[in-house]
Write a structure and sequence with these properties.
It is a single chain. The protein has three domains: 173 residues, P-loop containing nucleotide triphosphate hydrolases (Rossmann fold), CATH 3.40.50.300; 68 residues, Obg-related GTPase Ych/YyaF, coiled-coil domain (DNA polymerase, domain 1); 64 residues, Beta-grasp domain (Ubiquitin-like (UB roll)). It is 44% helix and 20% strand. The strands form three sheets. The chain has a six-stranded mixed beta sheet, sandwiched between helices. The chain has a three-stranded mixed beta sheet with strand order 3-9-8, sandwiched between helices. Helix 8 links the parallel strand 6 and strand 7. Helix 1 runs parallel beside helix 9. The chain starts with a strand and ends with a strand.
């Protein structure tokens, strides 16, 4: 899974990226023209506790790839312009996070010369919407020509889907707000449409705004067309310092500043939510591991994430939920309490399940 951080220059995007990746800030890297990629471990307190109980040789967190796309800058004509290279960088991601500036700092000029989070969000939304619209206009013309030449029913079936998307985009609405069924989504799946991608928004706030952050976020949310978007406040400088501390120091630091949850935890959790992801665990003396799967994955689907052979040769899954295991502290006691069971290939895995796959 890939998350793309997108924003204007000096929004705090690269500082957020370094916070997520727990790496030192590099000013030269922040001015780069290419995307930077890091594979980031997903924090999971449940995995930590299971590891304490099993004391395995190895602990393996789930991971996410985070892309730090180059910040958008003002060009010579005084306008911020989006290039094809930038759009291609963004298209490669499964979900997007707009990093939007709310903080004031005269020594770090905003590319649009003023602080206005709603304007910045609408700018990105509009540019991505227009990119999708331009793509569909070209695609529709080609579809109609090719459908006439080949009489391909698949191409003909795609025409009304594209026309439906164009009509929605012309109303200045992103595609993620358009109701699409499974067949329509499948037809669009290969196009990497920008306004269809799951979206979160991270607002880089002034440290002094911590006490009034709820009202700031509520005001921004009320101005958005898409009310379903998750908005997360963060404080770039503070959050970066947090990421360099050990757990005890971090807890004390967060308490002093009134921060209930770190940006790293909030953003990664939000990405799981918007992408419809969840985790299950495998445990033992050799390894405790968190595995990322889509919601509604069956036991057999989940077995295939571990290894293809586990899918093909699946027999049964031994299932205990994390909460039950933490209550009883052993599989034997879970069995006695009726919290351990055998499930077949159609069983739908629940977030936090501990699985042991039986296979031939």
């Amino acid at each position: 899974m890939q998350i793309g951080l997108v924003g204007l220059q000096y929004s705090g995007k690269t500082t957020l990226f370094n916070t997520l990746a727990v790496k030192e800030f590099d000013e030269a890297a922040a001015m780069k023209e290419e995307a930077t990629i890091e594979v980031i471990k997903v924090p999971d307190e449940r995995l930590d506790k299971l590891t304490e109980l099993f004391n395995p040789k190895k602990k393996v967190n789930a991971t996410i790839e985070v892309y730090d796309t180059p910040g958008l800058r003002m060009s010579d004509d005084g306008k911020v312009k989006i290039t094809n290279t930038f759009l291609q960088n963004v298209k490669d991601n499964d979900s997007l996070f707009y990093v939007i500036r709310q903080f004031e700092n005269d020594s770090v000029p905003h590319p649009m010369n003023s602080i206005n989070p709603i304007r910045d969000i609408n700018f990105l939304e509009s540019e991505f919407l227009l990119a999708d619209l331009a793509f569909f206009e070209v695609r529709l013309e080609k579809l109609k020509k090719d459908a006439q030449k080949t009489k391909d029913d698949k191409l003909k079936r795609e025409v009304p889907i594209v026309e439906k998307c164009i009509a929605h985009l012309e109303e200045e609405k992103p595609l993620r707000t358009l109701e699409l069924d499974e067949s329509e989504l499948k037809a669009l799946s290969g196009y990497q449409l920008l306004s269809l991608k799951p979206l979160g928004i991270a607002i880089n706030c002034d440290e002094g705004a911590i006490g009034e952050i709820d009202s700031i976020i509520e005001k921004i949310k009320n101005e958005l067309l898409d009310k379903t978007i998750t908005i997360i406040p963060f404080y770039a400088k503070i959050e970066y310092e947090l990421s360099t501390l050990d757990e005890e120091e971090m807890t004390e630091f967060m308490s002093d500043y009134g921060i209930k949850e770190s940006a790293q935890s909030k953003i990664l959790r939000t990405c799981y939510e918007v992408l419809g992801l969840q985790s299950f665990f495998t445990v033992g003396e050799d390894e405790c591991r968190a595995w990322t799967i889509k919601k509604n994955y069956t036991a057999q689907d989940s077995a295939g994430v571990i290894h293809t052979d586990f899918y093909n040769k699946f027999i049964r899954a031994e299932v205990t939920h994390y909460d039950d295991y933490m209550e009883h502290k052993s599989f034997a006691k879970c069995k006695e309490a009726g919290a351990w069971r055998l499930e077949g290939k159609e069983y739908v895995v629940v977030d936090g399940d501990i699985l042991n796959i039986r296979h031939s």
